[in-house]
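User: Please fill in residues for this 223-position structure.
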C-alpha cells in the first residue's frame, strides 16, 4: 500500500497535529514540504487537490482532504487498530468533536493575537486579543480539571494531538506561561511523555515555530 501523502510545513501547528496523529496511529506517511509563502499552495496541481490552498493537505491514493481536524479523524477511522483515539460511541465522540472545535477557536484567537505583529509589522500587541486567548486557556484548564486527565476524558484522543500542537505554540511565542494553568502544564508533560514520537513531530518543530514567530514578535516590538 502506498504511503499517505501529507503536504505540510513542519512548524505549522495544524501540520504538526497531523504528523503526530499519523505516528501514533502507525500509518506510513510521505511528508511533502510545502511552503505557502513561496506559492506552493497556489499551483494548478495543488489547487486541484485543495481549492482552499491550505496546509496540511492529504492525498490518500487520490482522496484529497484539507483541514487538519478532518484528516485526524480520517486517519484513525481508516488506519487505526481500534477506535480509542476517535471513539465510535456517540457520547465519547461528541466530546472529542467538541474539543476539536474548541481547538479551532483557540488557534484562531491565538493567530489573531500574534499575526498583526509577526506578519504585518505592527508595533504593539492587542491586549484585548490576548485576553481572549487567556480566557480560552482558562476554559481548557477547566476541561482538564473536571474531566481530565486528557482533554476529552480519561484517555488520549485526536483532540489531544490537535490541542497540544496549538497550546505548545501559544506558549512558545513568549507571551504566555502556564503559571495560572497547572492542569494544562500537567497535561502538556503527559503528552510529551506518552505520545509516540512527540519530540520529532511536535517538540522540535515547535522550537522552529518559536524561533520564527517569537523572533518576529520580539523584533517588531523593539522597533
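Assistant: Residues filled in for all 223 positions:
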Amino acid at each position: 500500500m502506498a504511503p499517505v501523502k501529507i503536504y505540510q510545513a513542519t512548524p505549522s501547528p495544524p501540520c504538526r497535529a497531523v504528523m503526530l496523529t499519523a505516528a501514533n496511529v502507525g500509518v506510513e506517511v510521505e511528508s511533502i514540504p510545502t511552503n505557502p509563502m513561496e506559492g506552493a499552495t497556489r499551483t494548478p496541481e495543488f489547487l486541484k487537490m485543495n481549492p482552499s490552498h491550505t496546509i496540511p493537505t492529504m492525498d490518500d491514493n487520490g482522496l484529497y482532504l484539507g483541514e487538519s481536524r478532518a484528516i485526524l479523524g480520517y486517519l484513525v477511522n481508516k488506519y487505526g487498530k481500534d477506535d480509542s483515539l476517535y471513539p465510535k460511541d456517540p457520547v465519547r465522540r461528541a466530546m472529542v468533536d467538541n474539543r476539536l472545535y474548541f481547538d479551532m477557536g483557540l488557534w484562531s484567537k491565538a493567530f489573531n493575537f500574534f499575526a498583526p505583529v509577526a506578519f504585518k509589522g505592527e508595533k504593539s500587541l492587542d491586549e484585548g486579543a490576548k485576553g481572549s486567548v487567556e480566557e480560552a486557556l482558562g476554559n481548557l484548564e477547566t476541561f482538564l480539571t473536571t474531566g481530565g486527565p486528557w482533554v476529552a476524558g480519561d484517555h488520549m484522543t485526536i483532540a489531544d494531538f490537535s490541542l497540544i500542537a496549538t497550546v505548545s505554540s501559544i506558549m512558545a511565542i513568549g507571551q504566555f506561561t502556564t503559571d495560572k494553568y497547572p492542569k494544562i502544564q500537567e497535561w502538556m508533560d503527559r503528552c510529551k511523555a506518552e505520545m509516540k514520537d512527540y519530540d520529532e513531530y511536535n517538540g522540535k518543530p515547535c522550537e522552529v515555530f518559536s524561533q520564527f514567530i517569537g523572533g518576529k514578535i520580539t523584533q517588531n516590538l523593539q522597533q
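For context: The beta strands are 4-8, 29-33, 57-60, 63-66.
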